[in-house]
Specification:
The complex is a heterodimer of chains A (60) and B (397). With 60 residues, chain A is of the alpha+beta class. Chain A contains 2 helices and 4 strands. In chain B, strand 5 and strand 6 form a beta hairpin. Chain B is α/β, with parallel strands linked by helices and 397 residues long. The chains are: A alpha+beta (60), B alpha/beta (397).
């Protein structure tokens, strides 16, 4: 499961654009994650320019 | 759910989307532009450098407060500190003006509105209306109100995220090596030549990308970095690299940050088609960014004008929607595709260069007299200095 640190997030949309399954949506002041669609590929973790995204083990 | 009907609905109020809306409305189309934020243009996600050619390309006056500074050229600085100075006309699409993108984008939206385009801010496009393989508009939401917006043509100008163009089935998904991730500080107290933009290249500064200093006034500059996604990993974020660069310079170390921007750009080739029945993508949503520089405002605006004019002809019933989209596809490629392909190849080559090779190139090219600078002259100079290196670029002749 993907966790976004809302205090680090710049709402820049980088994670949204690299997500291969369109599981993320850029809102005005946060990024929405569709955890069910997410395949835990980790590209967004790698792509975040400020390191605001982490992934936890398992789906719950 | 409220229902609306337009000739054209444009999703995204950046330079591409606003320019589509402006030219489509000017040529007689009934246009609606959607912007998800409460304000067009903010927050900024851009280095804010652009060539003065933007004035002719989309018929702008250099007023309205969107120009922060005018520069004479660009300096490219190698890892060893060798400098290559390029005059403005040789420096490509990102040197000439340093602009205020928030004001610029809003200015373009005002021009679109003046031509008659309707605009809805704080409005999110939630999905495409698809019927029998054809795209017939978008679903949207504004302040809790749901909308069904039907249009003869739906335009995705939704930027790097490209959710709509991907939802429509365009092949705009990106490989790691085709993404640059960026962070930028607007800093006060920067001691830089206000007449030059600076680009620092090399793996030590910015793997697969560059650090930029774009002066906005006497002591204010955008200091930013783009790093190729292939080279980004935990503990090696663009922010880390930028902070390291800043810590290495006395003036920057003491400069104050008044704004932070993040973002990403595609540095890929555009897909083979950017249109479908009832649908077109434009700007970064169609991957029209210059892969060498990461600049996209000019290309988005140029393609946006082509699309807007084609959609105007559709509204005047000179063209069917399909013919208008075909004309757009032909015209934007005629304007941009050769340069996009050449600069993509150059980016691919540069990704493989070591810092030593970059030093050699900048030193060799720096020895050429500026007036004589051309691709051929550059290759000749590189060939004399480092024959093996020139072979890597030989096919550019």
């Amino acid at each position: 499961m993907i966790i976004i640190d809302k205090e680090k997030c710049l709402w820049c949309g980088t994670c949204v654009g690299v997500c291969p399954v369109l599981a993320m949506t850029l809102k005005e002041t946060y990024v929405d994650v569709d955890q069910e669609r997410c395949t835990s590929c980790g590209i967004c973790v790698k792509a975040c320019p400020v390191g605001a995204i982490t992934m936890t083990e398992g789906s719950e | 759910m409220k229902r609306l009907k337009y000739d054209v609905v444009v999703v995204g109020g950046g330079p591409a989307g606003t320019t589509v809306a402006r030219y489509a409305a000017k040529n007689g189309a009934k246009v609606l532009l959607l912007e998800k934020r409460q304000e067009v243009g903010s927050p900024v996600r851009c280095g804010e450098g652009i060539s003065k050619k933007i004035l002719q390309k989309i018929e702008l006056e250099p007023d309205g407060g969107w120009i922060a500074n005018e520069v004479a050229g660009a300096k490219i600085i190698s890892p060893k500190g060798s400098v290559l100075e390029l005059s403005e006309d040789l420096a490509g699409n990102e040197t000439g003006y340093i602009i205020r993108r928030d004001i610029f984008d809003k200015h373009l939206a005002k021009l679109a509105a003046t031509e008659g385009a309707d605009i809805m801010v704080k409005t999110t496009a939630t999905g495409l209306i698809k019927e029998g393989g054809k795209i017939r508009g978008v679903f949207a939401r504004q302040l809790g109100q749901e909308y069904r917006i039907e249009a003869d043509v739906t335009v995705a100008a939704d930027g790097f995220e490209a959710r709509l163009s991907r939802e429509a089935g365009l092949k705009t998904f990106l490989k790691l090596r085709d993404v640059d991730i960026c962070i930028q500080y607007e800093m006060v107290g920067v001691k830089t030549d206000p007449l030059f933009t600076e680009f620092y290249i090399g793996q030590s500064y910015a793997p697969g990308g560059y650090v930029w200093i774009f002066p906005k006034s006497e002591n204010v500059a955008n200091v930013g970095i783009g790093v190729n996604l292939m080279f980004s990993k935990e503990g090696a974020t663009p922010k880390r690299y930028l902070d390291k660069f800043i810590a290495s310079r006395d003036d920057l170390k003491r400069a104050k940050i008044v704004e932070i921007n993040g973002g990403a750009v595609s540095v890929s080739m555009p897909p083979e088609v950017v249109t479908k029945e009832g649908f077109a993508a434009v700007g970064d949503s169609a991957r029209m960014i210059d892969a060498l520089t990461g600049g996209g405002v000019m290309n988005g605006a140029v393609a946006g004008k082509e699309l807007g004019e084609a959609l105007g002809k559709m509204a005047q019933e000179k063209l069917t929607p399909n013919e208008a989209l075909k004309e757009y596809e032909k015209n934007w490629r005629r304007r941009l595709e050769v340069t996009l392909a050449r600069n993509y190849l150059a980016k691919e080559r540069l990704l493989e260069l070591t810092d030593e090779e970059m030093n050699d190139i900048i030193e060799a090219v720096g020895s050429i007299k500026l007036e004589g600078l051309s691709t051929a002259a550059i290759l000749k100079a590189v060939k004399e200095a480092r024959p093996s290196l020139a072979e890597k670029f030989a096919d550019f002749l």
